[in-house]
Each structure stands twice: as C-alpha cells, then as structure tokens.
Amino acid sequence: MMNEKIIKGFPHVKYSRESYSDDQSMSKSEELFQFLSKRRTVRDFDSRPIPKEVMENIIRTAGSAPSGANKQPWTFCLISDPTIKKQIRIGAEMEEKISYRSRMSDTWKEDLKPLGTDWEKPFLETAPYLIVVFKQSYGLENGEKTQHYYVNESVGIACGFLISAIHNAGLVTVTHTPSPMNFLSKILNRPENEKPFLLLPVGYPQDETFVPKIKRKDLSDIMKEY
Ligand code: IYR
Predict the structure, then answer these.
(1) Whole-number mean pLDDT of the chain?
(2) Spatial contact of 12 and 143, defined as CB atoms under 8 Å apart
(3) In ligand 1, which atom is closest to the CA atom of 119?
(4) Which residues lie with the beta carbon below 6 Å from any ligand 1 atom?
(5) Which GO terms describe its molecular function (predicted)?
(6) ipTM of the complex
(7) How far apart are alpha carbons 176 and 79 in whole angstroms?
(8) How far is the centre of ligand 1, averaged over its atoms, from the C-alpha of 117 (Å)?
(9) How do 172-173 and 194-203 pair as beta strands?
(10) Cα distance between residue 98 and residue 217, in whole Å
(11) Chain center to CA of 19
(12) Which domains does the chain possess?
C-alpha cells in the first residue's frame, strides 16, 4: 500500500475520508444543523469544574482549523488560576465601564438591549476556565521573524471550531471582546508578535438559565443561489 508519496518534491499522504450515500449525507448534514442550532451564547456560569483533558481536546480541535500557508497563527491561553481570572475581570470591567459610558454609540447600546449586557462581567471569575485567543501577526522562530498570512481569517475560523467544540462537549461560552484588549497581553505576559483576539469563558450554565428570545435569519436571507 502506497500511503505516502513525493509530489513536486514534497511529501504527501493519502487522503482518507468517510464516504456516504446521498441519504446518509442528507441525515448527517441535517443532524449537524440541528445540533449546532441548539448552541446559545450563555453569560450565567456555574463554577462546577471541568476536567482539563476536556479543555485540551477542545483546544486541539480549534488547532485543527485551516490557516494561511498552514502557519497556524494562534495561541490559546487556558486560564484556571483564580488570581489571574480576577486580574482579567478587573481589567475587562475597567475598559467595559468606559465603553458603556462613553465609547459606544447610543445606537450600539440600543442594539445590545435585547441581550441585556452591561459592563459587569462576573463570568470572568465564575467560569472554571477562560480561554484567551491570541493572533500571531507574525511568527517568531528562534528570535527570527517569519511571515504569517490571512491571520484574522485563520484565527476567526479556529474560533468557530473552538466554539463548536465547546458546544459539543456540553459546555457553554460567550465570545467576549472587551475593548481595548491590550491588558490581556500584559497580564498573560505574551510576546510582542501576539495580539489578543477573543476572550471566552467556558463552563456549565447555571441551573435555570434564560437566554434572549432572538431569531436566526432564514436560509433565503443568507443564501443566494446562482
Ligand atoms: N464588548 C461589550 C459590548 C458588546 C458588544 C457586542 I457587538 C455584543 O454582541 C455584546 C457585547 C461586552 O462584552 O459587553
């Protein structure tokens, strides 16, 4: 069996995949749609701990996303230390307080009203884990700068994988974007090539959690066929 070969001078491995009939494909696609449709952004967390192995698998899944020239320009900081969580909460709430008071427009605040958000972020301490995703604007290999490509697109796609993996493990999250986010680089002591991208608390939802009654757009509104 030839599972490996050299193509244009570079090693390749045989691509293997599950193969499905149209009927199987139909039910697989329907099942994933139904499953991912149940995902909701949750802001009320229980402090019940999560095995670290679960978090490692979730981050491995995010790391399997496609990226520009396969540079994998991301770092996922996994935080469970209560002292660091507290520092992050203080930093985030400091920025959020200013944002809600003076940086965000009236229209923006009006748009957020159905979601019931405000500057207070208790979930940053309640959730057993925080994941801070950093994008690597460029690489640093033995002190040498290397080029990265389509960094925002790549890290955004990886975050999609991450959020799906969190949902798949029966956990919840909220994509929190305190702005500006540079306080996270300082607290986590990240190198200069990394910029904070997204902050996700991860945990179980509180018992009896309510989420906003909002709707997703219909297929006809998001898909245009040619
Ligand atoms: N970053 C703030 C505000 C906020 C902005 C958007 I756009 C949201 O969809 C939700 C919140 C916060 O996290 O509260």
Answers:
(1) 97
(2) no
(3) 14
(4) 96, 112, 115, 117, 176-179
(5) oxidoreductase activity
(6) 0.94
(7) 15
(8) 7
(9) antiparallel
(10) 32
(11) 29
(12) 40-205 (3.40.109.10)
